[in-house]
């Protein structure tokens, strides 16, 4: 629970946002997890505890309520809130705190969109009850929740999914479509190949088939993707990210008028030199210096909410 240097968590005034980890630990589910930064941090600082040991931290729940200044908060930078080892009741408590801390904007990112989608569509009353219970415990004003006069989905909670390749896009993005959230976003990081995020491939997973009718066209319209983050992989032995893959994501977002945030080009990325006849290695360790980006990628937009 601290200030973070993650660029897309920055507040609108340019100050640092925060991370909040009411849960910690995770397990790998797709190619994007291969070089997990959170696992690397855990190996350095967690001692004998394994990163796969997923835990809920009740003692951290009230932290956002103590932060008086409105800020953006990345929820579970060291975990996935929708991991199978986190119970619905525990998720209810996390959402209850986000409901009470209405002056913050919470960003929840998952690689488990099926559970996120199902949870968002069934949890309204449970979140209300958890808010009433925790509100009394933390001595907070819960009048709206006792009288049921509250907005759902929570207007200050953004729900997003990770997308690293086309297969994952085909599986996860349609599930995001059915998720109840005020802001729905994609984090295309680490981007491992060229990906279409709006007009999806016709061949989709069996999982996705369950959540659409046979007559529903397999197209992801812009009206349910409110924001896209894109970036290459960083760290030792980072997998390569072609600049034109990022350019393609940016062009797709422009076409559908969706705000896009280019976070970084990645540690193993090269850009054309000033003459444009060859490529040069970036000086920035993770390719995150916007001054090294090609001009058409110097874009860091956020949704208006």
TrEMBL record:
Superkingdom as given in the UniProt entry: Bacteria
Record's compositionally biased regions (Basic and acidic residues): 295-305
Region Disordered: start-end pairs: 278-305
Pfam families noted in UniProt: DUF5131
InterPro entries in the record: DUF5131
Protein name, as recorded: Gp37Gp68 family protein
